[in-house]
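Entry 12.
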Amino acid sequence: MYFLSKRPALFRVVFFALLFLIFPGHSYALDQQLAHDVASNASHPVLDPFFDDLEQRTFQFFWDTANPDNGLVPDKAPANSASSIAAVGFGLTAYPIGVERGYITRDQARERVLTTLRFFRYAPQGEQAEGVTGYHGFFYHFLDMKTGLRTDRSELSTIDTSLLLGGMLFCQSYFDGDDLQETEIRTLVDTIYRRVNWRWAATRPPAIVLGWSPEQGFIPYDWRGYNEGMLIYLLALASPTHGLELDSWNAWTGTYDLNWGISYGQEFLSFPPLFGHQYSHVWIDFRDIQDAYMRGRGIDYFENSRRATIAQRNYAIDNPQKFKGYGKNVWGLTASDGPVDTFKVVLLRLRHFLGYSARGVGGIHIPDDGTIAPTAALASLPFAPEIVIPAAHEMFERYGAQIYSKYGFIDAFNPSFDFAYTTMQLRSGKVVRGVGWVDSDYLGIDQGPILAMIENYRSDFVWRYMRKNAYLRRGLEHAGFSGGWLGPAAALKQSNADANATEKAN
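Predicted 3D structure (tokens):
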């Protein structure tokens, strides 16, 4: 898959698109106590001071590491890395949260946001391989932190551009003042969003391609459900300049049935790593709104993510591969850092450990090497607080400063990789006797969902502003969503559309 091994986002998407095309309907019997623990009508526990500390530390990652001259956020830190445009999108989401929580002033946030938006508005675009930041309104996955230009032959990424736009559109809704600066913020976001050519990216219409590069052209894979790509289609449907039609959403949902099944006591639309159940939810409140597919299933995407979260915890309790540390309060698999790609014997079993890789639950094969990513559990806080809050406390209390430091939880750790005298070159981090491998880095695309979802749980903050965003509403309605906060008008419109479709079918 040409450069996929060097492109974590592409690797994780293509890997799971191929591996989980058929969902096997794995069944798992829960005992009554476990079922009680994760009852459907979960309570809404108040967050204790630990989450105040975690939220502020996680915010500081974005505030401290971003380049103040152009707003670019590193892919990871403290490692010396390029900027990930998706991390920039999460950074733009973080700054208003910082205002809300009193970490920074509105003036400080406004200045940082303007710097970022001005950079992306005026950065060079073109089809050439060097000296540009993007093409056709999309942006390259990785940019040089200082120059802002394409680096490391990275791909023009439709998903990472969409995650960047998610943060931009949030800022457009949040900065609603009449002064010149906040007016400029809204205008800049409008300009950047409207020039994204979604039709160009639908090279095999009506589906949207994963990406493009000057060297290879279009990547030979399209976004098909179910995964984090949902946000791409909603933004494409909403575009007033290069918008796609409903058939693109139908292409996205057309593979859903292949991924619907039962895994560890939960019936849901599967994508094994939890980031696929979290990213779109950072900006979109899916509670009580449904598209045609979810109306047919009788749930919404929020409930689907709740079930995926519970399945992961159930898997950790069952722990079929007998990894160290797993249990009811230590769990969480997603795309994350890992110790190193190697084989080692643990408890008389040959284990295949991995570096950066996607890990998860559900599907033909469960990719798991014992690596736990705190973001997997923490970014699921709104979905299942009754199991996420104890998990956060347990991980902190059990492993302490080894995994919790300046910017909150490090990206990942692996208690099973406990080889204190290893001479191999680790991808990152170190091995601590009695603890195992612990990462040394924080990843922007993992920090962002932690911060945003804590605040969404606490106050609906990001969701509240995004519910007012005209583009988001337009995209959801064009995709056939109705109910909930979209209101009776959307429900009536969709009812009429369903009736017309039935009449035509007859």
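Annotation: Residues 1-9, 11-41, 501-506 have pLDDT under 50 and may be disordered. The CA atoms of residues 98 and 234 lie 27 Å apart.
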